[in-house]
Fold DNA oxidative demethylase ALKBH2.
Amino acid sequence: MEKFLLPAVPRSPPEKGPRPRATEGEEADPAQQGSPVEAAKQEVAPGPPGPWKKIRAEGLSCDYATLYGRAQADDIFRQLEEEVEYFEGECSSSLHLLHIFGKWHDIPRKQVTYGDAGLTYTYSGVTFSPKPWTPVLNRIRDRVQLVTGHTFNFVLINRYKDGHDHIGEHRDDERELVPRSPIASVSFGARREFVFRHGASRGRKASQRIAPVKLQLDHGSLLMMNFPTNRYWYHSLPSRKKVLAPRINLTFRKVRTL
């Protein structure tokens, strides 16, 4: 794996990659500062992200960094567990199914979407209408936007209760996505292995022999999947029975507005 990791390099214009984050909370209302309610809402501003690692292969362009320190990641994980409401119940049973190779399958994880009003997103045969942003999701989105220079209006959240929960090989190349826009994947909870596999190297009739690229996604980390990664590479989170703790993953996207 080390051959795919290169030293971080300085970034220039915002839209071409991650950038240093500005300090949060600079415009807080002075009249509210010091009150018990406001003090409870204030958080220590996260420091700059850890060194960026560039992950490169044929047609693959990703950047990986630590977005939050351990204490802040722990706190955000707790808030996500309290605020996020996953699709469940009889009224949304269809949202627990995926359409793969002509058959419907149960989703081996919990799932939900949040985003701006009026957006829709179709994934594996199911169309999602996002719920309104919550405070913790807005804070994470703000953090991601500030350190990357990209904007996002939609997030797909997956919760894996342990290593048995997983997601199979797929590409995030849905037509609703703004062309050439990156996808920002933020992870909290258990460390899990994330695998990229080139489309030409999949299956028995593979036309090329290209080694898969494997990453360990840490608690509080950010993985930027840049263009053209999702055109050529599939990615998955395989089952890992030895993982006993839960993981929450948020993939921020830029969806077309009608």
Observations:
- The chain has four helices and 16 strands.
- Residues 53-253 form a domain with the Jelly Rolls fold (CATH 2.60.120.590).
- Confidence is low (pLDDT under 50) at residues 1-17, 19-42, 89-105.
